[in-house]
Write a structure and sequence with these properties.
9-stranded antiparallel beta sheet, DNA Polymerase III, Chain A, domain 2, DNA_polIII_beta_C, 379 residues, 18% helix, nucleotidyltransferase
Length: 379
């Protein structure tokens, strides 16, 4: 095997494929990057058995300037190989593999030789031949992931909650995540409707990595689903992930349908106020911020206390306050994540009782995006 390529294009593809590689894998060969060269393209593959990423560079890509002298394949140690490629002196590099799978990497006056492994021993990627597919714009998919993955559980004691529940029916996609302390739910209508319904749970870790790879363009992502795998295809990349097995809890019943008190804020202004209040709460052991709503006086107060340091209190500006007086305490980190997911919009906060979950929705579209947070008991 022998080819030369523009280093900048190779590094971009290498970085994408390497997102799937973990140094903690129990399978030694998965710490390597698989390089496969055919007559017309170069394919890089990384995997940790849960996530697999395959990215392709074609000879037709003028930016890559790929020249293939001899097809072949090899698996090279990913971490060392990546460091070598990044530090090569010239913009063009050449890789040649001999019969013993030893790789010679040259660029300008620099030459590295590293030992590789026969690519035949690398695990095969899942075969997903589903004809039915969902099609969604990359920027919208990225936004949905970022808005819901914040509520995914990091506790392995309930594996099912470490994933995002995706349900598709009648042209509508529903994404839900909860760690039992907070919940994020996003609903969207897809124009390119599939005739098949889906109900799956995708690991949050997988979708988090996928979101980092997706651009902010309207370029389409195709989604295909098999029995225990999901495949996202976009640009020159195929992103595979295993699915979680089991039934996701019924989260609809967790979302309050009515409220005793409502208040409308600008999401960014409230976020900055909570950031200030949490400066002291983080210094304490409890990490709790308190919101006091006085409807008769039309006053909203945010406060944070640290017995060791002191306290902070701030009058909040708001658009509208209705209902009963209420005092509620919550984890400020959960609230900051939720508010950040709304961007620049105004949000409506609906509350019932001091220890009952409250919800945040955008004022312009309160049915398709919901953030729920469970209060903290402080007495």
């Amino acid at each position: 095997m022998k080819f030369s390529i523009r280093r900048s294009a190779f590094i971009a593809a290498l970085n994408d494929a390497q997102r799937a590689i973990s140094s903690k894998t129990a399978i030694d060969i998965l710490t390597g990057i698989k390089i496969e060269v055919s007559a017309s393209k170069l394919t890089l593959t990384g995997s940790d058995a849960d996530i697999s990423i395959e990215t392709v560079i074609s000879q037709e890509d003028e930016k890559a300037a790929l020249e293939i002298e001899e097809p072949g394949s090899v698996v090279l140690p990913a971490r060392f190989f990546n460091e070598i490629v990044k530090k090569l002196p010239e913009d063009t590099m050449t890789i040649a593999i001999d019969a013993r799978f030893q790789a010679t990497i040259t660029s300008g006056q620099a030459e590295f030789t590293i030992n590789g492994i026969d690519a035949e021993t690398y695990p095969h990627l899942p075969e997903i031949e589903a004809e039915n597919k969902l099609v969604i714009a990359a920027d919208i998919l990225k936004r949905i992931i970022n808005q819901t993955v914040i509520a995914v559980s990091t506790q392995e004691s309930r594996p099912i909650l470490t994933g995002i529940h995706l349900a598709y029916s009648n042209g509508e996609l529903l994404a839900v995540a909860t760690d039992s302390h907070r919940l994020s739910q996003r609903r969207i209508t897809l124009n390119d409707a599939s005739s098949q319904d889906y109900d799956i749970i995708v690991p949050g870790k997988s979708l988090n990595e996928l979101a980092k790879m997706l651009g902010d363009s309207a370029e389409n992502v195709e989604i295909r689903i098999a029995e225990n795998q999901i495949l996202f295809t976009f640009a020159n990349t195929s992103f595979y992930s295993r699915l979680l097995e089991g039934n996701y809890p019924d989260t609809d019943r967790l979302i309050p349908q009515n409220s005793e008190t409502t208040i409308e804020f600008n999401a960014v202004e409230l976020l900055h106020s909570i950031e200030r209040a949490s400066l002291l709460s983080h210094a304490g052991r409890s990490n709790v911020v308190k919101l006091t709503l006085k409807t008769s006086e039309q006053q909203a107060i945010i406060s944070g206390t640290s017995p060791e340091i002191g306290n902070v209190e701030e009058d909040l500006s708001f658009k509208q306050l209705e209902g009963n007086d209420l005092e509620i305490s919550f984890n400020p980190d959960y609230m900051k994540d939720a508010l950040a997911s709304f961007g620049q919009t105004d949000v409506k906060m609906s509350l019932t009782l001091p220890l009952r979950p409250f919800i945040l929705v955008p004022t312009e579209d309160g049915t398709n995006f919901v953030q729920l947070i469970t209060p903290v008991r402080t007495f």
